[in-house]
Amino acid sequence: MNVSFSKRWLGLIAVVAAGMMLVSCGDKTSGDKASEPAKVAEEDKVLNIYNWSDYLAEDTIPNFEKETGIKVRYDVFDSNEILHAKMIAKNTGYDIVVPSSNWGKMQMEGGLLQKLDKSKLPNWKNLDPAVLEQMAKLDPGNQYLVDWLWSYTTVGINVDKVKAALGDMPMPENTWDLVFDPKYTSKLKSCGISFLDAPSEVFPIALRYVGKPEFSLNADDYKVAFDMLMKVRPDIKRFNSGGQIEDLASGNICVALGWAGDFNLARKRSIENKSEQNIEALVTKMGGYMFMDTMAIPADAKHPDNAHKFINYILRPEVHAGLTNAVTYANPNKAATPFVDEEIKNNKTIFLSEADVKNLIPPGNVDNATRRVQTRLFTQFKTGT
Ligand code: SPD
Q1: Which of 102, 293, 361 to mutate to test the pocket of ligand 1 (most atoms within 8 A of CB)?
Q2: Residue 291: CB atoms within 10 Å
Q3: Entry pTM
């Protein structure tokens, strides 16, 4: 095993495990029929997948279809909130969904996911055992969730445009000031600031910035974060989670609160489209917000056998590495490491150092009442009222 990769993971998973202590506990699904693996009958050669946008290599689906004869229907979303609302309404029609681990845990606890049948996943062995052991703390026995890719929410910048907009002003010590302090945003508005469009993405970081607990259950803390956010609101050009790659790659914005993987992908795209924007994902001193996006099978999936075939296919070293190489997000597949492009493997904003991983806000959750507070305040923030 690559020791530094392993060490990095130990750090990562310690943070994840700690974070999940914040998520409400209690597995309400044990002994629940809906959580048992579905019986495999003759399935149509169809697989319905619901995943984040820009999260695939070009050949991932065509190769799977060619090899298995299974036709994939692939839809995309840009926030856990959207996926979760569909999951709660049930009958999504999807056979594979990709919630972030903290949301997947809620779905698992709500009986909305079915258990994986490991006998159909021989490539499970490729996952780092240390990862599996630690992930078992949030999904006991690794029964429901399989890692797809992981990254963290941070500040992304177009280095040249930001320097030009700031003029004589030096970069701030805390680079979160670029999106949270009017002293900087008032200058950067000239080249375009973008925020993720989801309360669950913005509030944990905004709360840490104002010195409050990231998953506070106290409405007063949200008011403090909201007041801070409202001061920069006039300078924000757009809220568009899925659009940041394109906006950065084409030079339409110069600063974003978004996902590190997407910032690296924007840089790659800008090189491909010859606009050569100097885009960087910042590893901030204050820390970003870690997420692990996971494959899961809805309890009412119509094609669970095909879903297992797809998960097993993704867990092949070359396929998992292919995802990382295409979209610049880290994967949890130990056997995939030798297939990851050197440039990506050595990029410290993709595969973070152990210390940087420890500095991230671990995945966490709040109760429903707090989620409503977040949603209300975030809507007010967006509308600027
Ligand atoms: N373009 C792929 C984006 C994947 C982002 N997942 C984000 C999870 C955030 N908590």
Answers
A1: 293
A2: 27
A3: 0.90
Q: What is the mean pLDDT of residues 336-363?
A: 94
Evaluate if residue 9 carries a pLDDT over 60: no
Cα 374 from Cα 192, distance rounded (Å): 25
* CA dist., res. 330 & res. 124, Å (int): 17
Mean pLDDT of the chain: 90
100 lines ligand 1 (CB under 6 A): yes
Ordered structural domains, the chain, with CATH: 5-151+291-351 (3.40.190.10), 152-289+365-383 (3.40.190.10)
The alpha carbon of 365 and the centre of ligand 1 are apart by a number of angstroms equal to 16
Residues 149, 293 contacting (CB under 8 angstroms): yes
pLDDT of 1 reads: 34
Q: Looking at per-residue confidence, does 269 or 276 come out higher?
A: 269
Angle, in degrees to the nearest 10, between helices 304-314 and 317-327? 70
Structure tokens that stand for 384 in this block: 């600027």
